[in-house]
Design brief:
Elements: H1 4-55, E1 59-66, E2 69-76, E3 98-99, H2 103-117, H3 139-142, H4 147-152, H5 188-202, H6 206-218, H7 231-234, E4 238-239, E5 245-247, E6 261-262, H8 264-276, H9 282-289, E7 310-312, E8 317-321, E9 325-333, E10 338-344, E11 349-355, H10 364-371, H11 379-385
Antiparallel strand pairs: 1-2, 1-11, 3-6, 4-5, 7-8, 8-9, 9-10, 10-11
Length: 387
């Protein structure tokens, strides 16, 4: 039988031992969880590397977030780069910067929708209310164009009147390809026309507007429609279908259709803002993501099965998906730079990746099935890749 002093010492000793054991077991559990997460991250990394090596893609940046699971990678193809240098050949902790190509359009669309929300622009007023139509051959048709038609890609305009990076493009004549608002027809020229209107309304160049409305509020420090000094070292070279280096590709002027440069981490911040409806009223967000009633038939002479699932909302593609419901997406294609994003509201998540390769869209099914774990391929893949 222990006296009071001995019992107190015994109880104190046992209490310390139990506490130590609990702390030890907790540490083991944390360690096991950390190892498990690290192993899972490594498995994703190894599989993504296998995918880009097989597709001859030199470099990929990928960001995703689904139901709390976050992935963030910059992975190099060892057949193109050694393991300690990014594509520019500079050892740096900063991210590589890619051409975003047509992902540029979605950032601009978000700006237009914020302006619409504040009453600065009327989506259904003729754009000629805000800017001139001097370049259009058919001025009667041009006077009917609205911001809604531009964002829905129903202007009847061609993609470009001539190469938008050429010296002659700013004064080239714009000729209609189809009657206004008659059908879906993807057009960068329409976006450039609306860009001029936005610049006139705000009295500023588009990159300054984008900094105020998007880049600075969302912390997108590596993103710009114009060339920045940091891009001299951070931007990666693009590679054509034969694996030949085609350089960084400098654009002569800011164009919301295709000149955005960014990194996947920056663009992921923008996608999260889209998912959350940041900066938009619920009504504006609903208008933004509401698909046009017409399907997006990409090739007028070839109505493909995948076209039945694809439509266009306000500057952003939509897919009616059997597994996930409405999916928001856009692809980017500047030849040697290809990118993609998919936002799935029902799964509260997004995926985006950027590549510096002509083969960057060959990996859509492999990447989505790995990260999103969709049971069937998205119609997006065929819409982009199938002739």
């Amino acid at each position: 039988i222990m006296d009071g002093t001995c019992f107190f010492k015994f109880r104190h000793t046992m209490k310390n031992r139990l506490a130590s054991a609990f702390m030890f077991l907790s540490a083991l559990m944390v360690s096991a969880f950390t190892v498990s997460c690290a192993t899972e991250q490594d498995l994703y990394k190894d599989e993504i590397k296998r995918i880009i090596v097989g597709a001859q893609v030199p470099l990929i940046q990928l960001e995703s977030s689904f139901n709390g699971e976050r992935l963030s990678y910059q992975i190099e193809n060892p057949n193109f780069y050694d393991s300690v240098k990014i594509a520019s050949g500079e050892a740096t902790p900063k991210p590589a910067v890619f051409q975003a190509a047509s992902l540029s359009k979605v950032v601009f669309s978000y700006i237009v929708m914020k302006m619409y929300d504040r009453g600065e622009i009327d989506l259904d007023a003729p754009i000629c209310t805000y800017t001139d139509i001097d370049r259009f051959e058919d001025k009667e048709s041009a006077s009917k164009l609205t911001a809604r038609m531009v964002l829905n890609h129903r202007t009847g305009l061609p993609n470009w009147s001539t190469s938008p990076s050429s010296q002659e493009w700013p004064t080239s004549t714009i000729t209609f390809k189809y009657p206004v608002d008659s059908c879906y027809g993807y057009s960068g020229e329409g976006f450039a026309f609306l860009q001029r209107a936005v610049e006139k309304i705000r009295g500023k160049k588009i990159d300054d507007i984008a900094k105020e409305e998007v880049f600075q509020p969302l912390g997108m420090e590596y993103t710009s429609y114009e060339w920045q000094p940091m891009y001299d070292t951070l931007t990666v070279d693009g590679y054509n279908k034969d694996g030949e280096n085609r350089g960084k590709g400098r654009h002569p002027r800011a164009n919301v259709g295709y000149t955005l440069r960014t990194c996947a981490a920056d663009y992921a911040k923008f996608l999260q803002a889209l998912l959350d409806g940041t900066g938009l009223s619920p009504q504006a967000k609903e208008v933004f993501f509401a698909p046009c009633s017409e399907k997006a038939i990409r090739y007028a002479a070839n109505h493909r099965e995948c076209d039945n699932s694809i439509a266009w909302a306000m500057g952003i593609g939509t897919e009616e998906n059997a597994e996930f419901g409405k999916v928001l997406w856009h692809w980017g294609d500047n030849g040697s730079f290809k990118a993609l994003f998919i936002v799935i509201p029902s799964a509260n998540g997004y995926l985006t990746y950027f590549t510096n390769s002509n083969h960057g869209h060959d990996i859509i099914n492999d990447i989505t099935s790995l990260v999103i774990k969709n049971k069937a391929p998205f119609a997006i893949n065929d819409w982009i890749n199938q002739d």
